[in-house]
Design a protein that fits this description.
The protein contains 6 helices and 7 strands; from the N terminus they run βαβαββαββαβαα. By secondary structure, the protein is an alpha/beta fold. This is 7-methyl-GTP pyrophosphatase.
Length: 193
C-alpha cells in the first residue's frame, strides 16, 4: 500500500481519519484558499480539496494524498467560512437561526504514483433551531468554534443548536467524509479493514 498523507493541519480531520485505523502522516499544504470570481460553492470546495492534495505531490512520491475543504451555504446561497472571531461567529449563527445550512465538503484522493485523482463533494444539511442572541453568545463563549465553518462543533455542544440533520455521511459535517473516502481508498486497492 502506498503511504497515506492527509493534506491538512486540522485536528478534526486527523481524529476522523484515525477511525479507519490506517497508518498516515499529515502535513499542512500552502495554497491560496480564496474564492474565484463567480465560483460556485461546490466548485470551490472540489478545487481546493484537489489543490491541497496536489500541493504536496512533488515532495511525497508514492503516496495517496487526501485533500479536503469545506464551506457552509445558507439557504439564500451565502457562503460561510470559518468565522475566526466572536462577532463573525455571532453573525453566522444569527443567519442560521431557524433556517437550514448545507455543508459542502470537497474530498480528493491523489495517487502520486499513477497521477490519478478522485474528486467529489459530499453535502450535509443542518436544520437549526430558532436561536436567541443570548443562546448564541452562551454557546460561543463555551465552545469557541472560531476555526469551524458555520461557527459550531457538531461533535460537541453544537449539536444542541440543531433541530435535525440530513445527509448520507455525518462525518462530512466534521470535515472529512469517511464513507466516500473509503470508496476512494478501495478504488486504489487499499484494504479496509
Amino acid at each position: 500500500m502506498p503511504e497515506l498523507l492527509l493534506a491538512s493541519s486540522s485536528p478534526y480531520r486527523r481524529e476522523l481519519l484515525e477511525r479507519l485505523q490506517l497508518p498516515f502522516t499529515w502535513q499542512s499544504p500552502s495554497i491560496d484558499e480564496s474564492r474565484q470570481d463567480s465560483e460556485a460553492a461546490i466548485d470551490l470546495v472540489k478545487r481546493l480539496a484537489e489543490e491541497k492534495a496536489r500541493a504536496l505531490a512533488t515532495s511525497h512520491p508514492d503516496h495517496l494524498i487526501i485533500g479536503s475543504d469545506q464551506v457552509a451555504v445558507l439557504s439564500d446561497g451565502q457562503i460561510l467560512g470559518k468565522p475566526h472571531d466572536l462577532p463573525r461567529a455571532q453573525q453566522q449563527l444569527r443567519a442560521a437561526s431557524g433556517s437550514s445550512v448545507t455543508f459542502l465538503t470537497g474530498l480528493a484522493l491523489l495517487n502520486t504514483s499513477s497521477g490519478s485523482c478522485q474528486v467529489d463533494c459530499i453535502p450535509f444539511t443542518v436544520h437549526f433551531r430558532p436561536l436567541s442572541n443570548e443562546r448564541i453568545l452562551r454557546y460561543l463563549q463555551r465552545e469557541k468554534p472560531f476555526d469551524c465553518a458555520g461557527s459550531f462543533k457538531s461533535e460537541g455542544l453544537g449539536i444542541s443548536l440543531f433541530r435535525s440533520t440530513e445527509g448520507e455521511d455525518a462525518t462530512s459535517l466534521i470535515g472529512l467524509p469517511l464513507i466516500r473516502l473509503v470508496d476512494m481508498l478501495l478504488n486504489e486497492g487499499v484494504e479496509i479493514p
